[in-house]
Design brief:
The complex is a heterotrimer of chains A (about 100), B (about 475) and C (about 500). Helix content of chain A is about 35%, strand content about 10%. With about 100 residues, chain A is α+β, with helices and mostly antiparallel strands. In chain A, helix 1 packs across helix 2. Chain A is flat, with a radius of gyration of 22 Å. Chain B folds into three domains: about 290 residues, no CATH class; about 110 residues, no CATH class; about 60 residues, Arc Repressor Mutant, subunit A (Orthogonal Bundle). In chain B, strands 1, 2, 7, 8, 11, 12, 13, 14 and 15 form a nine-stranded mixed beta sheet that branches. In chain B, strands 6-5-16 form a three-stranded antiparallel beta sheet, with no helix packed on it. Chain C has a domain of about 300 residues: Alpha-Beta Complex (Amidase signature (AS) enzymes), CATH 3.90.1300.10. In chain C, about 35% of the residues lie in helices and about 15% in strands. Chain C is built from 15 helices and 14 strands. The chains are: A alpha+beta (about 100), B alpha+beta (about 475), C alpha/beta (about 500). Chains A and C meet through helix 1, helix 2 and strand 3 of A and helix 9, helix 10, helix 11, helix 12 and helix 13 of C. Strand 3 of chain A pairs antiparallel with strand 10 of chain B, so a sheet runs across the interface. Chain B: It catalyses: L-glutamyl-tRNA(Gln) + L-glutamine + ATP + H2O = L-glutaminyl-tRNA(Gln) + L-glutamate + ADP + phosphate + H(+); L-aspartyl-tRNA(Asn) + L-glutamine + ATP + H2O = L-asparaginyl-tRNA(Asn) + L-glutamate + ADP + phosphate + 2 H(+). Chain B: It is an enzyme of class 6 (ligase).
Chain lengths: ~100, ~475, ~500
């Protein structure tokens, strides 16, 4: 599989990573190399093989419906790059 | 079928709804922080909800139970094996950069909702699925001219997304669907249905087609937060689409917003680009496995739901389909009615509840829970009618006072001296006086003008300030007039 | 008496118990060692003040007779574990200034048991790498590098991603260190530095509070200089955590008690497919030597087959990046860490993530995004998950005829910084023996077994049945004793 520049630009946008135009070409080459490498999986017969989600052989544990967390807005906000009046602040979003 | 008249003929609107219903629970779906509405910003946020590095989700058992309960209430299949997936997208109020949701294997499969339409008919709408997911935080755009403020209190609260089949064909049906769904959720106690607080929000999928044609291209109107808006948005959107097609254009599949000030739908700029959510099973969670016996236990605790209650009201109380429908629309109304009807004439109870009480509540803008007249007091009033202490007409007067003051009917009757006159001699006295004062009319009556009977009744009642027993008045008056 | 920094944990515990020295003295020696290894760029954050006050508290506990199982032992923490009030970087620019308000479960258990924190050590950015050369804070140089510190003849890598942990122990700047292992990140650096590293069974150690790379593969584990020390430290790190849905509710055994030295009759599986291309002859020879050692101790070597092993790397390089692309979406400049402003929210995201993530992390996020995207999910991600199932089945089958598996840890001795760096795929091949273990969720460990012709360490890997770390440790100690690995790096603090 070989990725072109446009595809790399598209996935970079999807992943919200700014990639300078001049780097797209070489990045496309590196990613293509990796994709070519992983394509050997097509040799494996996986007919009727269930895809593995987790190796943990157990049921999903459930917790009780009790309030045991939260109530510490100051700590939640303490690492915020920009905060005001108890809120996180970001550039204006237009819906 | 209600078609919309266009320039080129009839059009049919096709509607499917995705309702996001906030699960009633103390704590969030995957964290232990509180879910209460209206708390100070970011005060109900844990490091899990704010997606700090290394934080992990652990599921709230009660939220799972609530989803199962809702599924059972919608007569739906419960999937004993379901999977949580990550829906990946970036948004300022989505801290993880993904929403934990259920994609290919939801907890609840196909079910149904019976709509009660205004004309008394009903119609069944298919429910495609119900799944559990996390709510996002809240973006506030009006706090600052160039900034958006983020409050994560809602982030991680459990939602049930309930998806309907595209089975609805008018805004009325869509309205009835949301009303009925809300009623069922409230009966079940799984969602408070409070649309103003955002506990229930609708995404409305609308398309139009010529009757008999294949489905048209749909637009999704996001986050509509009242039944009225759902209906208005559908009306507007259907018209908009019809106009575009009739002018030779085509509909772009897109996400739109209902503008609650301009009453139009408009394209959502932030959602313009094509989505690629990259769903995959959340590796922080394992598949959710339910025990069939546990589901059965929940089933046993289900309350009587509106459809069954309605059938029972019609069967046991002999109520009309319409009255039964009105009474079961909310559990609190049905409960009120049954408290009033207990040991009394159900028809009379129904008339008083749906007539006077609902009328007064409506005028006062009050919910039944806030009624100044308790079910017990309304029952007391009906008892006074039944044992002839007061007439139906006086009762209405008494009710008005009860609604104003919250007093008991018997107290008001006593205080105002409204007790019905059943003393034959007293009634005869009044009749004699009326007849004496209207000798000419007596003659006319006797000459064959039967219609004057009503006039005499009115005069007698007036003379007794309405307190005379109407049946006795009729009987004695007739006897005396026929002389 | 041996210098305090050269003691094993077991020896140090003994010395503390016998009052030969105090925890403060032991810690002071290590704090000086931490300063001495600065040229190797091992520590990202040194916490000498915290270390000394923890040591003081430890001495007080010991005086009262309430010392814990690791009381007074100075250790280093991989900078992937969140530590309350202490900067946690994951080796990334994007976590600039981030100070967690919480402590990871694993580290809090270490402190509960009395361990002393010397500081946070280097790693590959977000644990994505095999050499500890991709961190924003620079590359870690192995103390095994020949030449004088700062003027090395060859700058040798410490392996990765837990290279800072491995280097700290090898350089005698810590008695032990925490590591994490997603595809070999504990075992490979342990092998490269002549130290011991265990990746426990998936679910043994809580992942809560550890910066996530690939959730279905990540597992924390101890890195030490001896197998016995690994047993001591593993016991403190393991344990059920209700805050991690994948944590397993099982009792934690006294791993040290399993070190009986008796492996008579034990069947040691030798996977025939592991004689891969690129396996150096000296490593092949070391592997044979390892088999011979175990045979001498009474174990029975059996040939086993792991036919899908060769596809493990390919499956890994789909599954790990896919999970990572989603796990790293939270680094968006909104709630913590770096923010690079932009004209609007989208630009802010792109600028922040473009500047905050290094090249290897970006590559993996992009690959992960691609393999999950519409139209490619089944061909890549689902296929990889199916292959993962087959790899697990291979191990299940193999463990029907053996009790433990012996392999090399890495196909060659450590390389020098600058080598193998142009081609990402070449770099990935270093993990060929370690990655299948993560895909199957099994416990495994690397034990130092000898030196290569270049004078650099070589390790052997043991793979166990799920939750059978005890057999692993028992066999590991037999290998350790037989190998009698006493080599010390050219530089020690």
């Amino acid at each position: 599989m070989s990725l072109d520049k446009a595809t790399v630009a598209k996935i970079a946008h999807l992943a919200r990573i700014k990639v300078p135009d001049e780097e797209l070409e070489s990045l496309a080459g590196e990613l293509s190399q990796i994709l070519t490498f992983v394509e050997q999986l097509n040799e494996v017969d996986t007919k009727d093989v269930p895809p593995m989600t987790s190796v943990a052989a157990q049921k999903l544990r459930r917790r009780k419906d009790e309030v045991t967390d939260g109530g510490y807005a100051a700590q939640v906000l303490s690492n915020g790059p920009e905060t005001a009046e108890g809120f996180f602040v970001v550039p204006k979003v237009v819906e | 079928m209600s078609y919309i008249q266009g320039e080129t003929g009839d059009w049919e609107v096709v509607i499917g709804l995705e309702v996001h219903a906030q699960v009633i629970s103390n704590a969030k779906l995957f964290s232990g922080s509180a879910t209460e509405f209206g708390a100070a910003p970011n005060s109900q946020v844990s490091f899990v909800d704010a997606a700090f590095p290394g934080m992990l989700p652990v599921i709230n058992e009660y939220c799972v139970e609530q989803a199962v309960r809702t599924g059972l209430g919608l007569k739906a299949e419960i999937n004993l094996h379901s999977v949580f997936d990550r829906k990946n997208y970036f948004y300022a109020d989505l801290p993880q950069g993904y929403q934990i949701s259920q994609f290919l294997q939801p907890i609840v499969g196909k079910g149904e909702i019976v709509l009660d339409l205004p004309d008394g008919t009903s119609r069944t709408v298919g429910v495609t699925r119900l799944h559990l997911e996390q709510d996002a935080g809240k973006s506030l755009h009006d706090q600052h001219p160039s900034k958006t403020y983020i409050d994560l209190n809602r982030s991680g609260v459990a939602l049930m997304e309930i998806v309907s089949e595209p089975d609805m064909r008018s805004s009325e049906e869509a309205g009835a669907y949301v009303r009925k769904l809300r009623s069922i959720l409230r009966y079940l106690g799984t969602c408070d249905g409070n649309m103003e607080e955002g506990s229930m929000r609708c995404d409305v999928n609308v398309s139009v087609r010529k009757p008999g044609d294949a489905f048209g291209t749909r637009c999704e109107i996001k986050n509509v937060n009242s039944i009225r808006f759902v209906m208005q948005a559908i009306e507007y959107e259907a018209r908009r689409q019809i106009e575009i097609i009739e002018e030779g254009g085509k509909i772009d599949q897109e996400t739109r917003l209902w503008d609650t000030t301009k009453f139009v739908t408009r394209s959502m700029r932030s959602k313009e680009e094509a989505h690629d959510y990259r769903y995959f099973p959340d590796p922080d969670l394992l598949p959710l496995e339910l025990d069939a016996a546990w589901v059965e236990d929940i089933k046993k605790t289900l309350p009587e739901l509106p459809d069954d209650k309605k059938a029972r009201f019609i069967e046991d109380y002999k109520l009309s389909v319409y009255d039964a429908g009105v009474l079961v629309s909310e559990k609190s109304k049905a409960d009120y009615f049954e408290a009033v009807a207990k040991g009394r004439d159900p028809k009379l109870a129904s008339n008083w509840v749906t007539g006077e009480l609902f009328g007064y509540l409506n005028k006062a803008g009050k919910e039944i829970e806030e009624s100044p007249v308790s079910a017990g007091n309304l029952g007391g009033l009906i008892d006074l009618i039944a044992d002839n202490t007061i007439s139906g007409r006086i009762a209405k007067e008494v009710f008005e006072t009860m609604f104003e003051t919250g007093e008991k009917a018997a107290d008001i009757v006593e205080k105002k001296g409204l007790r019905q006159v059943t003393d034959t001699s007293a009634i005869e006295g009044s009749i004699d006086a009326v007849m004496a004062a209207n000798a000419d009319k007596v003659a006319e009556f006797r000459g064959g003008k039967d219609k004057l009977f009503g006039f005499f009744v009115g005069q007698v009642m007036k003379a007794t300030q309405g307190k005379a027993n109407p049946a006795m008045v009729n009987e004695i008056l007739m006897k005396k007039l026929k002389g | 008496m041996t210098a305090l920094t050269h003691l094993t944990m077991a020896e140090a515990l003994d010395g503390l118990a016998k009052k030969e020295f105090t925890a403060v003295e032991l810690t002071e020696a290590h704090v000086r060692a931490v300063e001495a290894v600065r040229p190797f760029n091992i520590f990202i954050t040194e916490t000498p003040d915290a270390a000394l006050s923890m040591a003081k508290a430890s001495d007080e506990r010991r005086a009262k007779g309430s010392a814990g199982p690791m009381d007074g032992l100075p250790i280093a923490v991989k900078d992937l574990f969140c530590t309350k009030g202490v900067a946690t970087t994951a080796g990334s620019h994007i976590l600039d200034g981030f100070k967690p308000e919480y402590e990871s479960t694993v580290t809090s258990q270490l402190w509960r048991d009395g361990a002393v924190m010397l500081g946070k050590v280097n790693l590959d950015e977000f644990a994505m790498g095999s050499a500890t050369i991709t961190a924003h804070q620079g590359e870690t140089v192995s103390p095994w590098s020949p030449g004088a510190p700062g003027a090395w003849d060859r700058k040798i890598v410490a392996g990765g991603s837990s290279g800072g942990s491995a280097a700290a122990i090898a350089a005698r700047a810590a008695l032990g260190a925490t590591g994490t292992d997603t595809g070999g990140s504990i075992r490979q650096p342990a092998g490269y530095t002549g130290t011991v590293g265990i990746k426990p069974t998936y679910g043994r150690c809580s992942r809560w509070g550890i910066v996530a790379y690939a959730s279905s593969l990540d597992q924390a584990g101890p890195m030490t200089r001896t197998v016995e020390d690994a047993a001591i430290m593993l016991r403190s790190m393991c344990g059920f955590d209700p805050k991690d849905s994948t944590s397993v509710d099982m009792p934690v055994p006294d791993f040290r008690a399993a070190l009986t030295g008796d492996i008579r009759g034990l069947r040691v599986g030798i996977p025939k497919e592991y004689r891969v291309e690129g396996l150096s002859s000296e490593i092949a020879a070391l592997w044979d030597q390892g088999i011979a050692w175990l045979k001498e101790a009474g174990a029975v070597p059996v040939e086993i087959s792991l036919p899908h092993t060769k596809y493990a790397l390919a499956a890994y390089y789909i599954i790990a990046p896919a999970e990572a692309s989603s796990n790293l979406a939270r680094y968006d400049g909104v709630r913590y860490g770096l923010r690079v402003e932009g004209g609007n929210l989208k630009e802010m995201y792109e600028n922040t993530r473009g500047a905050g993530f290094g090249k290897e992390v970006q590559r993996r996020i992009l690959i992960g995004t691609y393999v999950l995207s519409a139209g490619y999910y089944d061909a890549y991600y689902n296929k990889a998950r199916q292959v993962r199932t087959r790899i697990k089945w291979d191990f299940d089958e193999a463990f029907k005829s053996c009790d433990v598996i012996l392999t090399p840890t890495a196909p060659s001795t450590p390389f020098a910084i600058g080598e193998k760096m142009d081609d990402p795929v070449q770099m990935y091949l270093i993990d060929v023996y370690t990655v299948p273990v993560n895909l199957a969720g099994l416990p495994a460990m690397s034990v130092p077994a000898g030196l290569g012709a270049d004078g650099l360490p070589l390790g052997l890997q043991l793979i166990g049945r799920p939750f059978d770390e005890e057999t692993l440790l028992r066999v590991g100690q037999v290998v350790e004793k037989a190998a009698n690995f006493t080599a010390v790096p050219p530089f020690v603090a």
